[in-house]
Amino acid sequence: MTEPTDAALMARVQDGDRAAFGRLVDRHKDALVSYLTRLTGARDRAEDGAQEAFLRLFLAARHYREQGNFRAYLFRIATNLVRSEERRRKRWRTVATLISSNGQPAEPAAARRLLEREIHGEVTQALGRLPLHYRVPLVLREIEGWSYDQIAQVTRSREGTVKSRIHRGKQRLREELRGYWQGETK
Amino acid sequence: MSDDRLDDALRSLPRVRARKGFTDEVLARLDETAGRRRPEPATWAAVVLAAAGAALLAIWLWPAAESGSHLARELQELRTEHESLSRLIDTLGEDEAGDLPLLFLALGEEEAVVLDLEALLEATESGRSSQAVWQVQTASLRY
């Protein structure tokens, strides 16, 4: 028996079918959590963000119009959630700078210390410092392996814009990591 | 740092999988959300706006409706007057085969001042002056 397509499942979700929704979650959860982990640099945030994205998908299912790009639609919801959260964090950092001595937001220190010893940690952190409009296409392309066209659907921009943002994002990432690659200490 | 090295570093990042029980957690959150779901703020705002709009519309339309009924009354009066005048004109036309009527400018018990519209019409058409207003004995007038 063939698996129902995303479109078929989504049509059932629009009728309130929870089982179909559960299958969609199962099908896309790993990709979404992985993407959000690279985007946010934090596994917990990624899990929460992915759950929230799925919830919003279900609650706003009636607005969904089938255009053969369900995955792009889902990832766009998730990306917008991260964007909103980053704005809130930025505002909070501004406040935190005013009220704390070092101005640094709290981080999961233990996990950070572990990650900092490894290249993955360095790359993850460097990624996290990239502006979101570079980070999103870079993660989707270089880590998730999406096509430019698919990324353009998520970011609602042209393919040319996607390519140039990936290029600039990589340039900035390279600069960020130059010291690390050359063995410099921070 | 070369492009290859960066690309390799990016692609070597380990894939992350959703934690066990992820789907059940999402469905549980869905139940939770559905259980306590209230109309969204946007829905409330729309309802309040619609109610306020309806109230404002009613307030705005009330004088207009009043004014509308006043205008309707005036229009009806004009129609009645128009019909009355039309009937009078028709009646005048039916009088004495084509004779234009006399208009009473003043009417006393003994004397009356009348305007002879036929004389006035003739004077206008001929370009000659002609007496059209007469002072006559009221008793001499035939009705």
Key attributes of the depicted protein:
heterodimer, A: about 190 residues, mainly alpha, 9 helices, about 0% strand, B: about 140 residues, 3-stranded antiparallel sheet, 4 helices, 3 strands, about 10% strand, rod-shaped
Structure description:
The complex is a heterodimer of chains A (186) and B (143). Chain A has 186 residues and is mostly helical. Chain A is built from nine helices and no strands. The longest helix of chain A is centred in the middle third of the chain and has 30 residues, at 70-99. Mean pLDDT of chain A is 83; it is low at 98-103. Chain B has 143 residues and is mainly α. Chain B is built from four helices and three strands. In chain B, a hairpin with a 3-residue loop joins β1 and β2 (111-116). At the A-B interface, α2, α3, α6, α7 and α9 of A face α1 and α2 of B.
Describe how the helices and strands are arranged.
The complex is a heterodimer of chains A (186) and B (143).
Chain A (H helix, E strand, L loop, with lengths): L5 H9 L3 H23 L2 H17 L10 H30 L9 H8 L2 H11 L2 H12 L4 H8 L3 H23 L5
Chain B lengths: L2 H9 L10 H14 L5 H54 L7 E6 L3 E6 H10 L6 E5 L6
Largest interface: A-B, 34 and 24 residues
Averaged pLDDT of chain A: 83
Could you tell me the radius of gyration of chain B in angstroms? 46 Å
User: Low-confidence runs of chain B (pLDDT<50, min 5 residues)?
Assistant: none
Give the gist of this structure.
Chain A has 186 residues and is mainly alpha-helical. Chain A has nine helices and no strands. Chain B is mainly alpha-helical.
